[in-house]
Amino acid sequence: MENYTMEGRTYRYYGQEAPLYPFGYGLSYTTFQYRDLVLSPPALPICANLSVSVVLANAGQRDGEEVVQLYLRWEQSSVPVPRWQLVAFRRVALPAGRETKLSFQVTAEQRAVWAQDWRLEPGAITLFAGGQQPDQQTRAPSEVLSTRFTVTGAARPLRGC
């Protein structure tokens, strides 16, 4: 094997072609709603971790479970990166009519890109939170919220943090 890139070989690098069964694919007997996606801090020093919170509500008539997924998309990177990167997920059981606030940490390691070594780069990054991948087309609707944050400082190797 001479070509070690993942382009065209995994859902993260398919380009415009959607995978047949994306991560989180499935049906539910209830409806979930997402709201109040909050990032702290919205401008992040290069080596810092990002705190994320989102409210998940079961708006349906039945108890259910949802797999809450967080993805990152780098707006500009010096090296090829996936369309989006799964950085966290959690299965949440929620009774009908109830809601819960979920908290996550996105670490500096999860924001690193591979450029002959793991590097952290400044710039804008979009974070997605929802019950499916961003831009996923399914028969069972699931919301995906998004917001941007900015990484500040000079690019550096991850081990330099």
Can you offer a commentary on this structure?
This protein has 161 residues and is an all-beta fold. It has a single domain (22-160), classed as Immunoglobulins (Immunoglobulin-like, Sandwich), CATH 2.60.40.10. It is 2% helix and 46% strand. It has one helix and eleven strands; from the N terminus they run ββββββαβββββ. The strands form three sheets. The protein has a five-stranded mixed beta sheet, with no helix packed on it. The radius of gyration is 17 Å and the shape is globular. It starts with 31 loop residues before the first strand and ends with a strand.
Furnish the topology, listing elements before pairings:
Blueprint: E1 32-40, E2 43-45, E3 50-58, E4 64-74, E5 85-94, E6 99-106, H1 108-111, E7 113-114, E8 118-120, E9 123-130, E10 144-152, E11 156-157
Labels describing this entry:
161 residues, mainly beta, Immunoglobulin-like, 3-stranded antiparallel β-sheet, 1 helix, 11 strands
